[in-house]
Amino acid sequence: MSLQDFTQKPFSSSSEENKHVISEVIQKWLIDSKMVLEIASGTGQHAVHFAENMPFLTWQTSDLVESHSGINLWINESGLTNILPPLSIDVSEDNWPVVTYDAVYSANSFHIMSKQNVTDFFSHISSVLNPTGLVIIYGPFNYNGQFTSPSNANFDIWLKQRNEKSGIKDFEFCHELALNAGLKLAEDIEMPQNNRILIWVKK
């Protein structure tokens, strides 16, 4: 029996709440995909849920090293063979994979990142995408410099109290970076709790 057997898996209540609605939206976009890279897998809950519900996909997790043990606990308990142990990826460093994927997915990460981190994410993205690859981002966004709800405005204050460089990003800022990376917007989908799913496709 290993030490992991006595370790409690990390748990995110928000991930548990939103995994079903996200899955319903992204599954139709991923139906022709085979390999997906998830940036900032967090607890690993999304990865396990999506891999279970989309068995035609191989789901590659990734995060900073300190999150790997928790992600592996979720993967090991799931018993799934189409989900891979996490890669160590810092979006602002040159440790991105050398292989390419049909899609890159990330949830609730952009508002944790600094603007430089998001810039670096898009500067690397084309190198890991197949010719018609997708970029799927879930989370809150501002439009025309405005919060979409009072709760998002309060959330942004809380984020900045924890880290002044974090905060909800402007859609326009992200979209310009995506365009510069050779991506075009395929869909901007309204989600519950004042969140969005943004989908770009490689031109």
TrEMBL record:
Coiled-coil annotated residue ranges, if any: none
Source organism, top-level taxon: Bacteria
Gene3D superfamilies: Vaccinia Virus protein VP39 (3.40.50.150)
One Pfam family hit: DUF938
InterPro entries assigned: DUF938, SAM-dependent_MTases_sf
One of the GO biological process terms: methylation
Swiss-Prot/TrEMBL keywords: Methyltransferase, Transferase
GO molecular function, a single term: methyltransferase activity
Name the UniProt record assigns to this protein: Class I SAM-dependent methyltransferase
Organism: Thiomicrorhabdus lithotrophica
